[in-house]
Design a protein that fits this description.
10-stranded mixed sheet, 33% helix
Length: 667
């Protein structure tokens, strides 16, 4: 952790009036903000204050979380720069390679600012990797200086290929013209005003050598302003199909095998603004998970200016409509029912309605006698849910005292409710299994006692997501009783840690690059509210009976289903309020009670092979819950890896799926 990250930032005395106003807005009003400040000290200490200050200073309600410019500047100077000695080491390393693939950089051009165009071209010329060609297609620019500038640059550099189109055809036609000149094994996409760092193509080529069958390679990215200042790094997960349907996460830097691009029909005209998204969707359809490779390094600098979607999607309103068209065409090609619409901060997947009436059994596990009255919860859910519930099954957790279990059992028996307690096993997992075995529904909902869904469509939406092709478990977004986000998916590692994504986030915020408001895959989700097909639950013999907490039991279930090719889907479409003090969703909650500590030890023995969560990024901190920078970045094993000449770990990550979620569904 850098010095700026390990200490709380400057105190409130340095706050500007606009920041105070923003803090109150994020907090949900003055009264609630004051309550949150007092509550934070109890739950998170000064670390909670530190992050909220950074949140206020670097966030927008519907935009990505921006890392503090000072922190990021210090970080990239320390961990993401290339000095002359390191460059010489890269050149020396390349001389040992058995093969160096030619990479064709495609650059469509139309009326750019001349200095930015020249900088973009020079960023390619400055590459440490020599085996490239730059294919520039000018789309009939009307700016008089474009042609002579390009011709002058081409005279200086024989690896530049030029084409001047006679008629403007927009970016798809220009990109196809550039593609026609390409002779490389791979093509990389570069806009006429963006920049590549000098090590970019080296890492692309290295990834291609590590994965000879790679069809799509992509990297992390950041923004660069008119003065060359870098900001807002997006450290991405390994390929995450559900997140990919929510945002074009592979866009920068995106590199495609040229033969694949030709095979899928090149760039499709009519989808200008999202032409690269459409191309990536069509390419992914032809690839296996291991052929999609992520390089967790910033290899692209996206230019911030008023006419760029890097600053505001509203700069190109046609781009979001084109993205919708590309995504819905993708679903149609795969015979997947449903639709995708633009939601302002990404795309929302709307599954098709369930076919016929679904028989749904709700299994409620009760952790505390005071947390819920079963009859009241049953009546509330039956009334406040738009889908009929076939039955309620009640599980009495071992954490209840003998007296508490007896009182709850008497209440349930008096109203003819089936319940499962000490006679069904000594662990919570064994009791839930007994309830599931008794359930008659085609789908199971596991729900924490006292949890309150925040809208009547919750059951239909959760069940519908759980029925999507390839989905094993579907999980919900969780909030505390005061409206603070408690969990947006779980990150896991083999050391026993199950970390709640976006824990403690204010409700107005969309999370790290929208990730607390967009569908995505995780290795696991919270046990507080999940849906699963009964047949799938039975196929893995339910929860492993040795688990003593539902948090670990459900996470283990998700991973075992993943090994069979069923992914875990987290959706923000379903929102559930947790009862007060009834469920622990902290970033690291593995040792707060003896049962959790025991489960953490069991987890570290059973899942020791997970050294790095593919849905997280090794450049992000594992010690802190808010997507802060890791200093130094983590290395990792379990992926195709090597060591760069400068000693920095080189990890190439492939899509973490046992089977392709984008496989074509039966018509």
């Amino acid at each position: 952790m850098s010095a700026n990250q390990s200490r709380p930032p400057s105190g409130p005395s340095r706050w500007r009036p606009s920041e105070i106003k923003r803090a109150i807005q994020l907090g949900g009003g003055l009264r609630r903000t004051l309550w949150l400040l007092s509550h934070l000290w109890i739950t998170e200490g000064w670390q909670g204050y530190a992050w909220r200050i950074r949140l206020v200073r670097n966030s927008a309600p519907a935009g990505p979380q921006s890392t503090s410019s000072n922190d990021y500047r210090s970080w990239y100077h320390r961990h993401d720069s290339l000095d002359p000695s390191q460059r010489r080491a890269l050149v020396s390393d390349m001389q040992t390679w058995p093969h160096r693939p030619l990479i064709s950089v495609l650059m469509p051009v139309f009326n750019p600012r001349l200095e930015w165009l020249e900088q973009a071209v020079q960023s390619v010329r400055a590459q440490a990797y020599p085996d490239w060609e730059l294919c520039i297609a000018d789309d009939a620019s009307t700016h008089a200086g474009v042609r002579p500038l390009l011709q002058g640059l081409a005279r200086q550099e024989p690896r530049i290929k030029l084409a001047f189109r006679e008629k403007n055809g927009h970016i798809c036609a220009a990109s196809n013209t550039a593609l026609e000149m390409a002779g490389g094994e791979f093509v990389a996409l570069l806009d006429h005003d963006d920049l590549l760092p000098p090590q970019a193509l080296y890492w692309v080529a290295r990834a291609a050598l590590a994965h000879p069958d790679a069809g799509l390679i992509y990297s992390d990215e950041d923004k660069i302003d008119e003065k060359g200042r870098r900001s807002a790094p997006y450290f991405k997960p390994a390929f995450n199909y559900d997140l990919f349907l929510s945002q074009n996460m592979v866009s920068h830097l995106g590199v495609f095998r040229r033969a694949l691009v030709e095979a899928v029909g090149r760039f499709r005209e009519g989808l200008e603004g999202s032409q690269d998204y459409d191309l990536a969707l069509r390419c992914v359809e032809q690839l296996r998970p291991e052929q999609i490779v992520h390089i967790p390094r910033v290899l692209y600098h996206w230019r911030l200016h008023g006419n760029s979607t890097a600053q505001d999607m509203a700069a190109k309103p046609y781009a979001s409509a084109a993205g919708e068209s590309a995504l819905n065409a993708h679903l149609a090609r795969l015979n997947q029912r449903g639709a995708i619409r633009y939601a302002g901060y990404g795309y929302q997947y709307l599954p098709a309605p369930l076919e016929g009436p679904q028989r749904i059994s709700v299994v409620v596990y009760l952790q505390r006698e005071t947390a819920v009255h079963p009859a009241a919860m049953k009546a509330h859910l039956a009334k406040a849910t738009d889908h009929p519930i076939l039955e309620f099954l009640w599980v009495l957790c071992p954490s209840l005292t003998v007296a508490e279990e007896s009182r709850l059992a008497a209440q349930l028996a008096a109203s003819d409710n089936r319940y499962f307690g000490s006679r069904h096993g000594l662990t919570i997992a064994s009791r839930v299994n007994a309830a599931a075995q008794s359930a008659a529904g085609e789908q199971l909902i596991l729900l924490l006692g006292g949890a309150q869904p925040r809208h009547p469509e919750w059951l239909t939406q959760l069940a519908t997501h759980a029925m999507r092709p390839g989905v094993g478990v579907a999980g919900a977004r969780l909030w505390d009783h005061n409206g603070t986000l408690m969990q947006a998916g779980l990150f896991v590692n083999g050391a026993g840690a199950l970390a709640s994504g976006h824990y403690g986030q204010a409700p107005q915020y969309k999370g790290y690059f929208g990730r607390s408001a967009l569908n995505q895959s995780f290795h696991a989700v919270s046990a507080a509210c999940i849906a699963i097909r009964h047949s799938l639950f039975d196929s893995v013999e339910g929860l492993a009976p040795e688990w003593k907490t539902m948090r670990y039991a459900v996470a283990d279930l998700c991973l075992r289903l993943s090994a069979q090719g069923h992914r875990t889907l987290w959706t923000p479409d379903v929102n559930v309020k947790l009862p007060r003090s009834a469920h622990d969703e902290r970033w690291h909650a593995c040792g707060q009670v003896p049962e959790a500590a025991e489960d953490a030890g069991l987890w570290s023995r059973q899942w020791a092979g997970i050294t790095e969560d593919a849905h997280y990024n090794p450049n992000l901190s594992w010690e802190r819950p808010h997507f802060e920078l890791a200093s130094p970045p983590r290395g990792g094993t379990g992926h195709a890896a090597g060591t760069a000449p400068d000693g920095v770990a080189c990890v190439f990550r492939t899509a973490p799926y046992a089977a392709a979620p984008w496989a074509k569904a039966s018509p």
